[in-house]
Write a structure and sequence with these properties.
- With about 290 residues, the protein is α/β, with parallel strands linked by helices.
- The protein has 2 domains: about 200 residues, FAD/NAD(P)-binding domain (3-Layer(bba) Sandwich); about 50 residues, no CATH class.
- The chain contains 7 helices and 12 strands.
- A 7-stranded mixed β-sheet has the order 3-2-1-7-12-11-10, with helices on one face. Strands 4-5-6 form a 3-stranded antiparallel β-sheet, with no helix packed on it.
- Helix 6 links the parallel strand 11 and strand 12.
- Helix 1 packs across helix 7 and helix 6 runs parallel beside helix 7.
- It is globular.
Length: about 290
Amino acid sequence: MDVIIVGAGLSGIGGACHLKMECPAKSFVILEGRESMGGTWDLSRYPGIRSDSDMHTLGYRFRPWRDAKAIADGPAILNYIHDTAAEYDVDKAIRYNQRVRSASWSPDQAHWTIEIETGEKLTCNFLYLCTGYYDYANGYTPEWPGVERFRGTIVHPQKWPEDLDYTDKRVVVIGSGATAITLVPAMAQRAASGIGRAIAVSDNPQKPHGGKDLSLGLGNSPRRFMSNGKVGVLFYLSDCCGIIDSLTTVRTLVQLHGRSRITLALASSGNGFTNCFQVFVATVRANS
């Protein structure tokens, strides 16, 4: 396999479409750990779920967002992903319930070996990680002393119950990030008659993510696995600022080590999709 894409969310589907358009001779597969495509926009079902960036920026350049509402709700974004996958015929390349257990780079054979939880192993020249920075199985939950004494209901937005009824309830929302600012207004609308209140509390004003490192320790710098003159590089493109440095690094590696000796793993976290795709496609082409 030329390329393995991990994740069938907004970035994974976008990467697959770019491969179909710009590298049609390359073989690829999309491994999705869940039973459906859409990533965050399929997983998250809490009230008010919507984008925190305008969809003209977050959407695909090759299939611009046409809806009148630029700050779109979750279902509209999910439909956009599904429609794009079908239009560019990449939905057939998705393998569902294929959770990746490990990925290892072989400097001797110059390829990646991907092990799936079923025990199956796949190899590829390029590994494109589109899993985001969330733990989909267990969303981050801080430890609070005495929480076991709380007599009410504790809900994580990542696992929002469909039948949750908060009418006539006092609600405290821990956190003040993108989830909170979409969740609180939606809950307040339901309690508009004054029978309920929604209060947002930040657990750490200086570090909105509770001090948790969302960059996985990689930042915008590549980790290199070099042996026998062959190179494997893992990129974690966490924001737009890293794109220029990443492109420069790709060009430098091509110049130093030759086109056929480079294998990259690229991971986009949700920002600067278009530029991430440019890095991805440029790198695949550089190894052709």
